[in-house]
């Protein structure tokens, strides 16, 4: 099928709720995508921050293939080995918690919030989240998402949510009460523009949750699985949450989400309280296991740190050259370049030259390459950005 034929199918049969780039992607390999017209694209924002270890990692593909030949799906009426193994691997790399699996980030946050309600005392029903956050598009998670543009057309949102500015300790203290069931935050806001939490903010959340018997939920959907240089974002802070949510990079490209909760918190979910038909299915879990193995075998946490530092050095050099670059915010390979003006046209021009990056909050360019990214690939990516910025300033 030609690109045009595929687009025609979409026009006629697919709900147009995404602004899509006019490319049909037919293949992914490592840090590259290939479109139906034979173009090769260097992908610095793989799968919307999904592919933490690159597209179609051979280990993941093999694990899926093998599992597909044995058992594609089994519901949670039974046990399945892969779900148990993945849970144990996450627990060992996290805080020794217990896991529940589902299929996406939003679903993971729903589970986290429902668990917080079950775990905390009766009468606690409020959730505090932070301005600029992103937690998903289901009704509760989009209510938790404290950005007005996502609420447009859906008001009134669900009751019980309060929003405080990110990293504002005093606002958090003022918002707290004994009615709060949980605080939910991203250790580093992704859609919000790569905003890194301050240690003070994280510690204050922990202290206030302890003082008021509330649960601390960290949304690790973007920060989880190594991209920041540690397995989970919270590990950059000397703080332990009660619940984390995970998705995106967890499945190496397969649809999977999950939560990990401290064992005493996890106890609140008993049969009948929460469920997901496909949650923890053997295929997605086999992929998740392969992701963790690949990260460890290939020392990818270390690579994320080193390549993150390398990228920042190069971006700082670009900043000297291009006035439009204001500053960079980052942790490992979660990189946001704050511009002084809009970035959408820059993203489009980069794509024309074979580079995929992303722009969020209108003025933040996002680089979130996979942890397998190489120096050469970063060089190429930043050379393209350099060229585009130079051309832009000459227009
Ligand atoms: N939480 C965060 C931090 C996210 O970035 C996203 C997706 N961008 C979600 C939750 C929702 O994940 P999903 O699209 O898989 O529901």
From TrEMBL:
Quote the record's binding site residues for pyridoxal 5'-phosphate. Answer: 105-106, 134, 219-222, 277
Q: Which residues form the signal peptide?
A: none
This protein's major location comes to: cytoplasm
Write out the residues that bind N(2)-acetyl-L-ornithine. 137, 276
Q: Which is an annotated GO molecular function term of this record?
A: identical protein binding
GO cellular component, as recorded: cytoplasm
Give the keywords, sorted: Amino-acid biosynthesis, Aminotransferase, Arginine biosynthesis, Cytoplasm, Pyridoxal phosphate, Transferase
The answer on whether this UniProt entry bears the keyword Membrane reads no
The cross-references to PROSITE patterns, in alphabetical order and at most eight, read: AA_TRANSFER_CLASS_3
Q: What is this protein called?
A: Acetylornithine aminotransferase
């Amino acid at each position: 099928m030609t690109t045009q034929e595929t687009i025609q199918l979409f026009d006629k049969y697919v709900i147009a709720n995404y602004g899509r780039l006019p490319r049909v992607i037919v293949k992914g390999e490592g840090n590259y995508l290939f479109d139906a017209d034979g173009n090769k694209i260097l992908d610095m924002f793989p799968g919307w921050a999904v592919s933490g270890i690159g597209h179609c990692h051979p280990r993941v593909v093999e694990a899926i293939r093998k599992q597909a030949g044995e058992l594609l799906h089994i519901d949670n009426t039974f046990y399945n080995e892969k779900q148990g193994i993945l849970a144990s691997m996450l627990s060992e790399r996290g805080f020794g918690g217990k896991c529940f699996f589902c299929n996406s980030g939003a679903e993971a946050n729903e589970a986290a919030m429902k668990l917080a309600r079950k775990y905390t005392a009766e009468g606690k029903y409020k959730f505090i989240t932070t301005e600029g956050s992103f937690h998903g598009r289901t009704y509760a998670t989009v209510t938790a998402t404290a950005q007005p543009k996502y609420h447009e057309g859906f008001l009134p949102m669900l009751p019980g949510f309060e929003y405080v500015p990110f990293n504002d300790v005093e606002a958090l203290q003022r918002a707290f009460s004994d009615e709060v069931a949980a605080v939910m935050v991203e250790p580093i806001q992704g859609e919000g523009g790569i905003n890194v939490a301050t240690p003070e903010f994280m510690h204050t959340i922990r202290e206030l949750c302890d003082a008021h018997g509330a649960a601390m939920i960290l949304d690790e959907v973007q920060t989880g699985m190594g991209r920041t240089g540690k397995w989970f974002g919270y590990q950059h802070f000397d703080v332990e949450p009660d619940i984390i949510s995970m998705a995106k990079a967890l499945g190496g490209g397969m649809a999977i989400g999950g939560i990990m909760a401290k064992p005493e918190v996890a106890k609140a979910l008993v049969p009948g309280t929460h469920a997901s038909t496909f949650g923890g299915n053997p295929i997605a879990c086999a992929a998740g296991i392969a992701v963790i193995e690949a990260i460890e075998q290939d020392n990818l946490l270390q690579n994320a740190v080193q390549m993150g530092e390398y990228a920042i050095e190069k971006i700082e050099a670009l900043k000297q050259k291009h006035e439009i670059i204001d500053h960079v915010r980052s942790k490992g390979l979660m990189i946001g370049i704050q511009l002084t003006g809009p970035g959408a046209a820059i993203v489009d021009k980069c794509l024309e030259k074979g580079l995929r990056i992303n722009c969020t909050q209108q003025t933040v360019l996002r680089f979130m390459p996979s942890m397998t990214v190489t120096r050469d690939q970063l060089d190429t990516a930043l050379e393209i950005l350099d060229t585009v910025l130079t051309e832009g300033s000459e227009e």
